[in-house]
Amino acid sequence: MLENFQNCLAVTLGYEGGWSDHPSDPGGATMKGITLATYRRFKPGATKTDLRNISNETVAKIYRTDYWDKVGGDRLAAGVDLATFDAGVNSGPARAMQWLMASIGGPDHETVKKLCAKRLGFMRSLAIWNTFGKGWSRRVAGIEAKGVAWALAQSTDPARARAQLTKEANAASATSKKQTAGASAAGTATTAGGSDALFNPDHVDQIAGWVLGGLLSAGALVAAVLIVRAIIHRQRAAAYAAEAERIMS
C-alpha cells in the first residue's frame, strides 16, 4: 500500500531484532536482519563492526530497495503488503511473490491467511526448522494476525473487525485443542524422552529433532506432528486475540 512502507518496516524490524551471528544461520552475521554481504553492496568493504553500527536511514534504504520495491509493496493492499514484504525479507522477494500469486482470490484478509500458510509450510520443510522453527512460527502467526487486522480495517468497521479477529482466535484455539487431543490418542514417544517431553510446548525443538531423526514410533510420530501443529495454532490464537484487543469497538 502506498505510504505504508514505514509501518510494515517497523513490524518486520520488531521481529528481526538487533545483532545476530548465529552459527546455524546460513546468512551469517546480521544487524536488524541485514547480512554483511548485503550491506557490502551498499558499502563496499564494510566490516562486522560497520554493520553493527548501521544507520536507521541505511536500514530503511536497504529494505525498500531489496524487498519492498521488489514485491511491489506500494501497489499491494494493506495487510497483504505486510505479509508479502515480511515473507520476502525471510525467504526472498521472488518466493514471496510466488506465494502471493498462488494466494490471490477473495477478500484481502483471506489472501493474507493463505500466503502465511504457504510461507509456514515452506519453513517447516527446511532442515534448520529444528533450530529456528519455534521463533519462525511465532513470527508468521504475528504477521498473519496483524495483516488480517490491517486488511479488515480497510473493509469494515472496528466492531466487525474485532469480531472477526476474535472468531479467528477462537477457531485457531479450537484447532489447537483438537490436535492436542488427537496427539494424546495417537500415542506417546517410545524413545528419546517419553511422553512428558512430547507434550511440553517448550520442547517443540526437541520434538522436531525426533521427527527429523526418525527416533519416534509410528504412533508417537503422528502425535509429535500433531503437537507441533497444535503449538502453531496456539500461537495463531494468541496473535489474533492480541490484535482484537488493540481495536477499540
Attribute tags:
single chain; 249 residues; mainly alpha; Chitosanase, subunit A, domain 1; 3-stranded antiparallel beta sheet
Commentary on this structure:
- Helices cover 71% and strands 2% of the residues.
- With 249 residues, the chain is mostly helical.
- It has a domain at 1-155: Up-down Bundle (Chitosanase, subunit A, domain 1).
- The protein has a three-stranded antiparallel beta sheet with strand order 1-2-3.
- The longest helix has 29 residues, at 158-186.
SSE diagram, text form:
Elements: H1 5-16, E1 19-20, E2 30-31, E3 34-35, H2 36-42, H3 48-52, H4 56-68, H5 80-91, H6 93-103, H7 108-124, H8 129-155, H9 158-186, H10 195-198, H11 204-213, H12 218-246
Antiparallel strand pairs: 1-2, 2-3
Helix pairs in contact: 1-5, 5-6, 5-7, 5-8, 6-7, 7-8, 8-9, 8-11, 8-12, 9-12, 11-12
Brief digest:
This protein is mainly α and 249 residues long. The chain has helices spanning 5-16, 36-42, 48-52, 56-68, 80-91, 93-103, 108-124, 129-155, 158-186, 195-198, 204-213, 218-246; strands at 19-20, 30-31, 34-35. It has twelve helices and three strands.
